[in-house]
């Protein structure tokens, strides 16, 4: 990607980006990690998309002083340790993880960092997507998922030789779960294989991850079935079914298709100068997909999309109004909810301040 792809889309050129307010300095010494306050310094850093778990260590006002000195290796989850090892393996010194780089019980700090989330992910060198992270805490480098009774090869990707009479054939398990979640199909499938895969890909059902995946120039997905690479110019998976020629989908709200459209909107990657009308069309498709995703706190409904909105607002000089665009407001107001989905009304307006006419009010 670094050598062969257009730097305007996959990695804007120029100097190293300004580092986020805080990053993890993973250094070069094994098992030594600390939080640093960057004070406007520049450097290459990686980010992480993951699902929070109850036993996960966080930075708070009580422990930030200790974290600035050292974060004990033993208190880090397996997913965090694997992400740190992977960052170091790519000769990258800094890693940004939200739970450790934002002071979680400081409202002002959280709001400041949440507003900067678009910049943090869009300037990342590489985003690590831990698709199976959460309560399971399996880490990144785990056993490949197999169907019960499947005894093929050393993993779901490597084929096994099966003898049939005097002949032999190569057989491998089709990684259908990974493909459903990577391509954004799982939320539209209520029966069959995707039900099995839900517990193995919880990351892609989280609303915060939506903009992280769209904005990051490069993402590597660690899935139970296989590794998947995503960037603005190409997508590849280990088994070969998902590749750069097959991902543009006719269904407008698949994440990979949306990512390609966002790249063209921002960088005119195919030589076409796109208009506000193109942006408005993209936004409606993006919102349709985003509104299906889950949040732990409904008050995050707008913040979790703010980075994407901010990027589009700067590019097209549009005024953003609670999930809608002023110049396209008449059409944006024609939203309706899916009658087959559970509806939750946001009654506590003191905690969740959004207009009742916005699609973000009722879910």
In one word, what is the shape?
Answer: globular
Q: Helices and strands: which structural class?
A: alpha/beta
Query: What is the beta-strand fraction?
Result: 5-15%
> Distance between termini?
38 Å
Would you tell me the overall average pLDDT?
Answer: 79
Order of helices and strands: HEEEHHEHHHEEEHHHEEEHHHEEH
Tell me the total number of β-strands: 12
Radius of gyration, CA atoms, in whole angstroms:
21 Å
Helical percentage? 25-40%
Main beta-sheet annotation: 8 strands, mixed
Q: Indicate the low-confidence ranges by residue numbers.
A: 147-154, 187-199, 246-253
Identify the strand order in the major beta sheet.
2-1-4-3-5-8-9-10
> How many helices in DSSP terms?
13
Number of domain modules: 2
Pfam families: HET
Organism: Hyaloscypha bicolor E
Protein name: HET-domain-containing protein
Domain Heterokaryon incompatibility: 45-212
């Amino acid at each position: 990607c670094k050598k062969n792809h257009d730097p305007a889309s996959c990695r804007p050129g120029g100097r190293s980006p300004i580092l986020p307010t805080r990053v993890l300095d993973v250094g070069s010494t094994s098992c030594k990690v600390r939080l640093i306050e960057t004070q406007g310094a520049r450097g290459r850093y990686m980010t992480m998309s993951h699902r929070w778990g109850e036993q996960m260590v966080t930075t708070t006002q009580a422990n930030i002083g200790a974290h600035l000195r050292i974060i004990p290796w033993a208190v880090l989850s397996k997913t965090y340790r694997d992400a740190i090892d992977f960052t170091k393996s790519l000769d990258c010194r800094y890693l940004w993880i939200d739970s450790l780089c934002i002071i979680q019980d400081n409202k002002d700090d959280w709001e400041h960092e949440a507003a900067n989330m678009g910049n943090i992910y869009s300037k990342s060198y590489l985003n690590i997507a831990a698709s199976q992270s959460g309560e399971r805490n399996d880490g990144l480098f785990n056993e490949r998922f197999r169907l019960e009774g499947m005894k093929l090869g050393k993993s779901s990707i490597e084929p096994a030789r099966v003898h049939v009479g005097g002949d032999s054939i190569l057989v491998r398990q089709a990684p259908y779960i990974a493909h459903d979640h990577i391509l954004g199909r799982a939320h539209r499938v209520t029966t069959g294989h995707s039900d099995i895969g839900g517990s193995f890909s919880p990351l892609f059902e989280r609303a915060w991850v939506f903009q992280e995946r769209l904005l990051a120039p490069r993402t590597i997905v660690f899935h139970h079935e296989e590794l998947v690479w995503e960037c603005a110019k190409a997508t590849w998976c280990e088994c070969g079914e998902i590749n750069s020629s097959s991902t543009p989908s006719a269904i407008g709200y698949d994440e990979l298709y949306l990512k390609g459209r966002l790249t063209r909107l921002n960088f005119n990657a195919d030589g076409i100068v796109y208009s506000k009308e193109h942006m408005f069309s993209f936004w409606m498709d993006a919102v349709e997909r985003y509104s299906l995703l889950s949040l732990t706190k409904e008050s995050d409904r707008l913040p979790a999309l703010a980075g994407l909105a901010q990027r589009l607002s700067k590019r097209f000089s549009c005024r953003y109004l609670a999930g809608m665009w002023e110049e396209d407001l008449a059409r944006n107001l024609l939203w309706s909810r899916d009658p087959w989905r559970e509806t939750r009304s946001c009654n506590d307006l003191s905690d969740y301040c959004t207009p009742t006419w916005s699609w973000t009010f009722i879910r």
